[in-house]
Amino acid sequence: MGQLRDRASGRHSPLRRLDWVLMGAVLALSVLGALLVWSATRQRLADVGGDPNDFLKRHLLNLTIGLVLAAGAMLLDYRLLRAYAPFVYLGSLVGLVAVLLVGSTINGAHSWIVLPAGFQLQPSEFAKVALIVGVAMILGEKHDSREGVRSTRPGDVDVIVVLALTLVPIGLIMLQPDFGTVMVLVFVILGMLAVSGAPRRWVLGLLLGGVLFGAAILQFHLLKPYQEARLTSFVSANAATNSTTGYNVDQAKTAIANGGIYGRGLLHGQQTQGQFVPEQQTDFVFTVAGEELGFLGSGGILVALGVILWRALSIAKDSDDSFGALVGTGVVCWFAFQAFVNIGMTLGIMPVTGLPLPFVSYGGSSMFANMIAVGLLQNVRLRSRTDPYAL
C-alpha cells in the first residue's frame, strides 16, 4: 500500500527518476555555449549591418528543439528500439546518400543539406546515433539471447557483421569528405567492441589497421590539399608556420593564452572580438572560453563534460541488459573522443578536423544528435530494474 501511495503522490514519477545531474551539466554547457557563440559572432554581424543576436537566437532555438527530441528519445522504451534499429540505420543511409546528391559544399565538405530560412542539416551527425543503436542491437543480441540469461560473447561472425554495417556509412561520409566524423565512428565502434567482449584480436587488429591506413593516406597523398595541410600542420612545425591551418591554430593558442586565470571578460576578448580566429562559433569555440573566461571558465567546461561522461558511464554500468549498456558506451566514446579532438586542436595537440564541441559549438544537427543521445541515456536509466519504481 505504501508503494501505491508513493506512486499516486508522484514521489517516484518518471521526472523524479531522471538523472538530473546529467541534465544539469548538459543544460549548463548548452547555455554557456549560447553565450560563447553570441560573443564570437555579435561584432561580426554588427559590422555588416546584421542582427548581432542572430546566432544567439538560433542557438537557443536549436537547444529548444534538441530538448524536445531528447524527450521523444526518452519516452520510447529503448528495449523496443531494437525492433526499429534496422529502420533507423537505413534512414541514416538515406540521409547520407541524399547529401551527396542534393547537398551543398561548405568549408570543403559536401556535408550539408540547405533548408529554408537559412537552416542546414548535416546527416552525418545523425549517423552517429543510428550506428550506435544498430551496433548495440547486434552485439547485445548475443548476450541477451535468452530471457534473463547472458549467453556467449560476440564471435568472429558478429564482429564481421558489425564491420560490414559500419563500412557503409563510413564510405558515404568519406565521399563528402568528412574525416573528422569518420574518426569518431571508428573510435565508437572500437569502444563498443571492446566492452561487448568481442575477441581482442579484432580490437587490436582494427587499431593497427587504422594507424596503417592513416599513414598510407599521408604517404600516397590521398587527401585534398587543404586536408593534408591540416594534418601536416599538426605533425610538422615548419608546415604549421607556412599554412593557413597552422596560422589559425597559432591564433587559437594566442587567444587561450591571453585569457590567463580569470579571462578578459565576456565580450572583451581581443582575439575573439577582433575576429582573428576563424570559425569561433563552431570548431574553435573553446578559444572564446579560454580568452574571455580564462582558465577557470574553460576548466569549468572540462568539468561539465567530465560530469556528463561520468553519469553516462554510470547509466551504462547499471543497465539491465547489454543493449542499454552498449548504447551508453557508444555515447560515452562519442562525446569523449569528439571533445578531446575539438579541444586538442585549439591547443595544437590534435589535427584540425572540423569536429564541434558537444553542447557548446553552434550547429543544429550537432545539437539535435547530442540531445537525442542524452534522451537515450535517460531512457536506459528510467527503465533500469535496479530501482523498484522503474518503468
Describe the structure.
- Helix content is 71%, strand content 3%.
- The chain is mainly α.
- Strand 1 and strand 2 form a beta hairpin.
- It is globular.
Short descriptors:
3 strands; 391 residues; three-stranded antiparallel β-sheet; mainly alpha; globular; disordered N terminus
| Structure annotation, total helices | 17
What shape does the CA trace take?
globular
Oligomer: single chain
Strand order of the largest sheet: 1-2-3
- What fraction of residues sit in β-strands? under 5%
Question: Tell me about the biggest sheet?
Answer: 3 strands, antiparallel
Report the structural category.
Answer: mainly alpha
Low-pLDDT stretches: 1-11, 146-150, 387-391
Helix content: over 70%
The H/E string reads HHHHHEEEHHHHHHHHHHHH
State the end-to-end CA separation.
Answer: 18 Å
Gist?
It contains 17 helices and three strands.
Provide the fold topology.
Blueprint: H1 2-9, H2 14-17, H3 20-47, H4 54-75, H5 81-102, E1 104-106, E2 109-114, E3 120-121, H6 123-143, H7 156-174, H8 179-196, H9 200-219, H10 225-235, H11 237-241, H12 244-259, H13 270-273, H14 285-292, H15 294-318, H16 322-347, H17 364-382
Antiparallel strand pairs: 1-2, 2-3
Helix pairs in contact: 3-4, 3-14, 3-15, 4-17, 5-6, 5-7, 6-7, 6-8, 6-16, 6-17, 7-8, 8-16, 12-14, 14-15, 15-16, 15-17, 16-17
